[in-house]
């Protein structure tokens, strides 16, 4: 039931990174597209994925599972592929086809692993921009992303405002704070102290499964809300031993283990580090960051039960944009699924995005 | 500068546990006392410690560091040792002198390790009651504890209401919820999947340091508030590598490592499990739990920034006690240190406890 496939854009020049390092060519960006670019080339929407996402945002790509936002993208869906040309690309540093620590270093012929340079959200966006140029798109009708995807959208708006008509930033922040960094630090500590990590040189079939599982388990706790945890997990019976008797424990173990089989531990280190570096303000006032991006139409969405990227952070973005003079809508959705609400079908997000897009015209 | 020492009460009968198992004699309870029991034996205050605490609540005991609540207990301090006879004992299952997984099993002559039976908060309280009987105290003027200590206080009030005049329950809950269990599950997973854990049979000088560090790092994040994390940890400079460059990371690593040198990994498993089992309601209404404990004077304290045991949980206890007809004061202190506020000297807790105790008379 394959009805989409990942394509690979090869950039044949060196890519300069924030760290001062250079990625030698070819720099590969894995991407998928859905729908058709119209004659006027004014119906393109770029989707930015979150930490563990891939270019496969919708439809089936050689697997039994649809893309990670399949309920949002498709025929007659909020991001309607009969109207829009939808692009999703895998971020630099990930393990799903774009150049990252699991790629071959063209200069040595070996896998990069920890030789891969540290990348930032800004680097990801600059690489993605090369793909958009390659696809011949002058201006995106919209750019949409949640969580780390939302941070990429923010960075896009700052870097390339002339290429963007409208932007949707969901459950994101403008700057990783000490809390968000702390959870990632523990995850990285767990990976880098797993004896199987071997300074990043683990054999592919012997990854640091325990460390990566722990990192993901911590992540999962932060992705859910207290409400949904309580509903989802009745307390287990007292068996008076150290088996995983509480349902929430089994759930977390399962999530951790599954993740460690589908994701690369080194990529996890790189992407969480990119998140932790994220700070569009540097030492500036947040409003000043948007002085060149005020022609874009913005929709900022947060979720009432999201405690990882709480509504206050989205509200601060919306306020700064509005004060900068940008046309800005902000909505805090009363959803119970915590940070993960943007990945849950039965929320109001679908209609909110659909209505916002309906009003956008290049 | 030693001015206190730990004593050891040996209970010479078998101790029956919630699990149905029996701890063979001697069951040892490590304890310290400060101040003098008066002639009428009506000035005794029992202090219950939290997860990683010990019997050394105050003064110096062979180390350069004072007891864990030294700012609260002592001459002219809120729990004034010139007026009160203060007792603190180490919980069953801990590694600080009371019988636990690091003790010798009298039936085999070997260390218990994982042969130690699972214990509950109720078991801890029942063992502590034997010590109070041994000390010849008919009725406690007060019993005071924070976090896991607060849960012990609640259990004391339910089990032995006739032995208690007043009770102070700080930053606690009446039932561990899915969230609280989830964080502990990840910590236990980290310990039990550390290759050095060896199913609990690690040599004392080769403990599962990484697993225990991870567990403690997760704990630390939950003990602090967002406010204090942000104040405490400026963002580090971008060094573009995987060293611990963010201050919050260094802090957590240090906390994890220090803890792994002072605490036993198996004890950590047992004590967190006891926390996770804690549920005084079982399937009853919370108010009904207190129908025999309404003669006690209660003070319930929560902290506005505590997100591990949030104010709502303390408020629910206070409401249930009040509805049950007990004389109950509830105060939510506006302190910035999160759950750990009860261990921080410069909060209002000192005067709150001092004033509450002043009003208590047997």
Structure notes:
With 362 residues, chain A is an alpha/beta fold. The first copy, chain A, has two domains: 7-176 and 279-358, 3-Layer(aba) Sandwich (Rossmann fold); 179-275, Rna Polymerase Sigma Factor, Chain: A, CATH 1.10.1740. Chain A has helices at residues 121-134, 148-159, 178-192, 209-223, 226-232, 247-262, 265-277, 286-289, 311-324, 349-358; strands spanning 7-11, 15-16, 22-23, 27-34, 44-48, 73-74, 79-80, 85-89, 142-146, 166-170, 297-303, 327-333. In chain A, the strands form three sheets. In chain A, strands 1-4-8-5-9-10-11-12 form an eight-stranded mixed β-sheet, sandwiched between helices. A two-stranded antiparallel sheet of chain A has the order 2-3. In chain A, strands 6-7 form a two-stranded parallel ribbon. In chain A, strand 9 (142-146), helix 2 (148-159) and strand 10 form a beta-alpha-beta unit. The longest helix of chain A has 16 residues, at 247-262. Chain A starts with 6 loop residues before the first strand and ends with a helix. At the A-B interface, helix 3, helix 4, helix 5, helix 6 and helix 7 of A face helix 3, helix 4, helix 5, helix 6 and helix 7 of B.
Percent of residues in β-strands of chain A: 15-25%
Most strands sheet of chain A: 8 strands, mixed
Number of helices of chain A: 10
CATH homology-level superfamily of the largest domain in chain A: Alpha/Beta hydrolase fold, catalytic domain
**What is the structural class of chain A?**
alpha/beta
Compressed to H and E, one letter per element, the order of chain A equals EEEEEEEEHEHEHHHHHHEHEH
Apparent shape of chain A: globular
Instruction: Give the rounded overall mean pLDDT of chain A.
Output: 95
Give the assembly state of these chains.
Answer: homodimer
CATH class of the largest domain in chain A: Alpha Beta
Give the proportion of residues in helices of chain A.
25-40%
